[in-house]
Each structure stands twice: as structure tokens, then as C-alpha cells.
Amino acid sequence: MVVIKFLGGAREVGRSAVLIKSNKGKTCLLDYGVRFTEEDRLPIDTDLGDLQAIALSHCHIDHSGALPYLYTKCEVPLLTNALTYQVSEILLRDLIKVSHHSYPFGHKELDIMRRNTIFLENNIRYKIDDNFFITFYNAGHIPGSVSILVEVDNKTILYTGDINNQTTNLINGADAKEIPKLDCLIIESTYALKDHPNREELEKSFIESVVNITENSGKVLIPAFGVARSQEILLMLKKYNFHGKVYLDGLTKKISATYFDHPNKFKDYPFYKRAFSDSKFVTFKNRKKVRNKSNYVMITPSGMLKGGAALHYIKDVLNDAHSAIYMVGYQAEDTPGNILMETGVFKYQDNRKPLNAAQNMHIKAKCDVNYFDFSSHADSSQLLAYVEDLKFKDDHRVAFCIHGDEKATTTFAKRLAQRKFNSVAPEAGETYKL
Ligand SMILES: [Zn+2]
Ligand SMILES: [Zn+2]
């Protein structure tokens, strides 16, 4: 009997962690993330049994953030790829820094993690025990992201991780057809209730807006997550032959430089390189000079305006009727980005750094504020199309819908039940037998 236990990421987005146990009591973890809330920030504590390995789907902190915490408890191989590992380490160091060491781990555990890391290429079967194998497949979500196939005691389980089956400017989409026949599917549900706008039309309207601002002496501030979204926006500007100046600041620079080490993870690496050679990195030295310029695009974290280098530019942009702030990613509730979208007022207070120059901003936007939904997750129809393309060994098709709020996960589970799945939206801490 194979046992699956959901330690987090169940009816929630955050602290993704799934434990899989074999007949013999050997276990494997899939992801080990954190949640950005006051409580329940870490996966549920449980007996990890005879843990053989942890496999990581991608670097986002809701999947990787608690890895150092795991290494306070044990030393097991971390199965990942070189790109995901490198970016995870950058994000984990940043997490430890910006959280002011409020998590129960630090740099020491990162060292332990590093010495236990094993790089695994996609489509290569890796044995973690007798009758217990792990294989990675492209998940299409961000560069380096994978879905994880677990073969244990003759049961085949696919954990999608965060998934996108649409090809973007940056990477190729996930292909369900390359996955072997399954017994069980553990699938994300982030956008199970929503369809994204038509991508091509959205890109064109975004570029039109950017050109309109920059041709009229304005600046466009694009707060974007440094991992993947910033680079996707840069490629979009290049694809539509945007001729204006494009600057990158903050964590985006570090992540972009890391991407240069992994050419095979991109759809069109020469194009990626060209887009970068036409943009400029802002340094501590020239930041003031750049701020005083006009007619340019600035791409910089944080995507939800919770901090990061975007704060160096936002005051000037908010106060200028010719300029614009274009949000290009999901804005969680009560974040400064979300409040700006909803009310037209930018409210920011950094209680942790009393001397921060950006503290206590409360500015009504004179500039244009808009949101473009460039998501890197499959939407409702795309998730169903992905499931339709998967193959199962027999009619006993089991599905767990995770990584979404209560409504998204439970509704998606019902939709799969209508398609003859034995499906459920598990709750954190629940255990199931296959
Ligand atoms: Zn993700
Ligand atoms: Zn996620």
C-alpha cells in the first residue's frame, strides 16, 4: 500500500509539501515550501519515516522555502537540476535576509543542503530505493521547473508542481503526452476557476501602452518578479521591436545572469541573449542618474511592490501624469500592488527598517496604473486540456487537486469527478492510501 500525505499546499497556495511512503516504509518528499502568513508558515510536522530523498519541482519559495528547515532535521539527497538549485539558493539567501532570520534556519543549513544536492536531467529515471524511482519532466512554468513522476511499488504518480502547457517567449510549455501511463495525479489548481485573456492580444495591448507612454516623455515602471517574469517581459519588448531604453534593477539582474549558465533551458537562447544585450543593468552608482531620465522602461522587483528596487523609482513615477506603472503578475490581497490597483493609492510602510527612505509612502497615483495578466500557470481550460492529454493505466483514475484556495481546489476536484476521476481536494495533514 502506497501512502500519500499532504503536509501543505492543500486548499492553500504556499508551503507545498507532499510525502510519499512505500510498502516498506521508505519515504520521499516532493517540495518543501513556506507560506507568507503569520501562522502555519512551514509544512506540517510529521514523522518523515525512512526518508530517502526530497525532489524539488522549482525554485519558487512556496515550493523551496522550507528546504533549509528540513536540513535542520536530517540529511537526505536533494534531487533538482542545476538551474533550479542556483536560483533557489539566491531566493533562500534573500528570504533569510529579508525575514531578518525569523525562520528556524539560516545559512548553516544552506551549506548542508548544498552538499546533499544531486542534479537530475529531465526524462532520466533515478532510483532512490528498490521499486522507488523519480523522473523529472518539463513543467513549462518557469525556466528549470519540472513535474515529478514517482514510481513506487508499481504505482505511478505524477506531481505536476506549478504547470503551464502554453509555450511562452521564454520557455516551452509542458507536454502531457510525454508522461507515462499513470495511476494517480496530484495537480495544481491555482487558476482552476479562471481563464487568462488571449495572450497575443494582451501582449499587443501591453506593448501599445508602453510605446504610448515612452513616446510621450514618460517612464514605465514594471514591478515584476525577478524569476522568469522580468525576463519574459524583456523578451516581449524585444519581440515587438520596442526601440526605447530598457533598464533592469534589483534581484532581476542576479537571476538573469544565472540564466546565462543554462542555455538549454530556454526556447530560443540566442534571442534571449540579444534581448539582454539591448537592455541595461542599473548599478548603485548610476541609479540616481537613471531616475532623472525619462522615456524608458524599468523592470524590477518586487512584483507586488512589497519592497525591492522598484521602491527607488515609484515616487517619481506615481507623481508624473505622463508615466505609468504596469503590473504584470498576480497581486495577492493587501499587498501594496493590490491596494494600488484597487484604490489608486500607493501605501507602503516598512516597519522593520525605520531609516528606509521609502518608508511611510502614501501617494495618490497621478500616473496610469494598469494590470496585464501574464500568468505562468495554466488556466482553467488549459488545465483540463492537460488532464485530457494524460494517459492512465485503467479506469481507476485517482486525482488530488492542490495548490489553490478552497474554492479552486474543491471545484476542480468536482470537475475531474465529472470526467470519471476519483478526485478530491485534500486538506493539509490528510493521508490517503493508493
Ligand atoms: Zn511557481
Ligand atoms: Zn507555487
Overview of the structural elements:
The protein has 434 residues and is of the alpha/beta class. The protein folds into 2 domains: 3-194 and 376-433, Ribonuclease Z/Hydroxyacylglutathione hydrolase-like (Metallo-beta-lactamase, Chain A), CATH 3.60.15.10; 199-371, Rossmann fold, CATH 3.40.50.10890. Helix content is 28%, strand content 23%. The protein contains 13 helices and 22 strands. The protein has helices at residues 61-64, 67-73, 82-98, 107-115, 199-214, 229-239, 251-259, 269-277, 287-291, 314-318, 336-343, 380-389, 406-418; strands at 3-8, 17-21, 26-30, 50-55, 78-80, 117-119, 126-129, 132-138, 146-152, 155-159, 184-188, 219-223, 245-248, 280-281, 296-300, 324-327, 345-348, 361-364, 368-371, 398-402, 422-424, 431-433. A 7-stranded mixed beta sheet has the order 6-5-4-3-2-1-22. Strands 7-8-9-10-11-20-21 form a 7-stranded mixed beta sheet, covered by helices on one side. A hairpin with a 4-residue loop joins strand 2 and strand 3. Helix 3 runs antiparallel to helix 7. The chain is globular and about 65 Å long. The model has no long low-confidence stretch (mean pLDDT 95). One zinc ion binds next to helix 1.
Short synopsis of the structure:
This protein is 28% helix and 23% strand. With 434 residues, the chain is an alpha/beta fold. A hairpin with a 7-residue loop joins strand 8 (132-138) and strand 9 (146-152).
Furnish the topology, listing elements before pairings.
Elements: E1 3-8, E2 17-21, E3 26-30, E4 50-55, H1 61-64, H2 67-73, E5 78-80, H3 82-98, H4 107-115, E6 117-119, E7 126-129, E8 132-138, E9 146-152, E10 155-159, E11 184-188, H5 199-214, E12 219-223, H6 229-239, E13 245-248, H7 251-259, H8 269-277, E14 280-281, H9 287-291, E15 296-300, H10 314-318, E16 324-327, H11 336-343, E17 345-348, E18 361-364, E19 368-371, H12 380-389, E20 398-402, H13 406-418, E21 422-424, E22 431-433
One zinc ion (ZN) is lined by residues 58, 60, 141, 162.
